[in-house]
Specification:
There is one protein chain. The protein contains twelve helices and 23 strands. The chain is an alpha/beta fold. The chain folds into two domains: about 240 residues, Metallo-beta-lactamase, Chain A, CATH 3.60.15; about 160 residues, Rossmann fold (3-Layer(aba) Sandwich), CATH 3.40.50.10890. Strand 9 and strand 10 form a beta hairpin. The longest helix has 18 residues. The termini are close together.
Length: about 425
């Protein structure tokens, strides 16, 4: 089994791993400025996708630009999310370098899509594939790949070992000769999720009691719905704006509810929330209310947050509650570090309180170690992280046979090890 790392090795973003020039695992993009894509567009016999985040699915339609029509295998929520993100990319960047595909490729994607449930093996391109719930976002999956010689590779995708509002932590540990493991938060240890949620809710309640407005910048996929569920659990009125509204509706479709930890939790959260359409100055009026506003974008580089932050920024009783990691160079990161942020081309000082809560959907250091413990006799290849080589070294010191492939590397696997 030969692996070629076309993206996601030694970096976060544009994940793409090609097996034997035949089977492609993920094909994402890095949505930075400028965006980046996998090193090349291969011509696989089939594509298997771990989950529906842009850094894992963002470039998939581009694979259909030529004569090839490889089937694309994923869970139902992952397909739905991929189509939503692709349409959004076309709307925002169609016809530019920032979008590597056209409407025609997107239409072809609907024709080659094949959906699967977790735990049901299927054969493709000469391999047996099985999905296992990864606990990251609804529909996310570990991908177990077994070739004709019996070599078993486990591609973890992104995963979480702790329960969230939407998903239960992964418990899957299928036997594998090689584990291709994400390492996004290998250098982080966080407090238990219930404690973070409780602190978040108490902070929102305090601001509401004091007469302020809370803006919660949140990623559309997962984070918006997590914040909605917490608000509902604590009887906090909230407005929801941006793409997160469409993602919420997507998760509540009958065909996707089985991928939720508790569908009723999200249904109640939707009933508690008020969705914003943004017409006729609605956002400006909402920003004047004593309420919670959950909105994209999570890092303040676009979306309705561009209206809400300027509207609430000058009053110190108001609050901006960040719910996700803020990449260096984004307005969200600048706001946390300097108290100012560039919003719609203008640097604005923010007098409102600014807080950050770690609602990451990735396993932390403890979660990664707990997940890998059964694989001490397996080879571990560390990917999808800013410090892959460092974490591989940490694992080696703990007795694992671990390494970190570099971008563009080719690695050969056999049942006796990695060459």
């Amino acid at each position: 089994m030969d692996l070629e790392f076309l993206g996601g090795a030694g970096e976060i973003g544009r994940s793409a791993v090609l097996i034997d020039d035949a089977l492609l695992l993920d094909f994402g993009m890095d949505s930075g400025n400028p965006p980046s894509f996998p090193l090349r567009e291969p011509d696989p016999e089939a594509v298997v996708v771990s989950h529906g985040h842009l850094d894992h699915v963002g470039s998939i339609p581009a694979l259909l630009s030529g004569d090839s029509r490889p089937p694309v295998h994923w869970t139902q929520p992952t397909y739905d999310l991929a189509m939503l993100l692709a349409r959004d990319t076309l709307k925002l960047h169609g016809g530019t370098y920032d979008c590597p595909f056209t409407e025609a490729e997107l239409a072809r994607l609907t024709q080659v899509s094949v959906t699967h449930d977790c735990g049901q093996p299927f054969s493709v391109a000469g391999y047996e594939i099985t999905f296992f719930d990864a606990g990251h976002v609804p529909g996310s999956a570990h991908v177990l790949v077994e070739d004709a010689d019996g070599t078993r590779l486990l591609y973890t995708g992104d995963f979480h070992t702790e329960d969230q509002q939407l998903t239960a932590g992964t418990t899957a540990r299928p036997e594998a000769d090689v584990v291709l493991c994400e390492s996004t938060y290998a250098d982080t240890t966080r407090r238990p999720r219930p404690a973070i949620e409780r602190e978040f809710a108490e902070s929102l309640e305090a601001t509401i009691w004091e007469g302020g407005t809370v803006v919660v910048p949140a990623f559309a996929i997962g984070r918006t719905q997590e914040a909605m569920c917490i608000c509902a659990e604590h009887d906090l009125e909230c407005y929801v704006d941006g793409m997160g509204k469409r993602v919420t509706e997507l998760f509540l479709r009958p065909r996707n509810r089985g991928f939720l930890r508790d569908p009723e939790c999200l249904r109640r959260a939707k009933g508690n929330a008020r969705f914003v359409d943004g017409r006729n100055g609605q956002r400006e009026r909402i920003a004047e209310q004593n309420t919670v506003i959950i909105t994209t974008s999570g890092m303040l580089h676009g979306g309705p947050a561009m209206t809400y932050i300027p509207a609430i920024r000058t009053h110190p009783v108001n609050k901006v509650a960040m719910t996700g990691f803020q990449v260096e160079g984004t307005p969200g990161r600048d706001l946390l570090e300097t108290g100012s942020a560039e919003i719609d081309g203008r640097v604005m000082p923010v007098s409102a309180q600014v807080e950050r809560y770690d609602f990451s959907a990735h396993a932390d250091r403890n979660g990664l170690e707990a997940f890998l413990e059964p694989y001490r006799e397996s080879e571990v290849l560390v990917v999808h992280g800013d410090r892959c080589e460092w974490f591989a070294g940490e694992l080696e010191a703990a007795g694992f046979d671990a390494s970190a492939p570099a971008l563009g590397d080719r690695v050969t696997i056999d049942t006796t090890g990695v060459q």
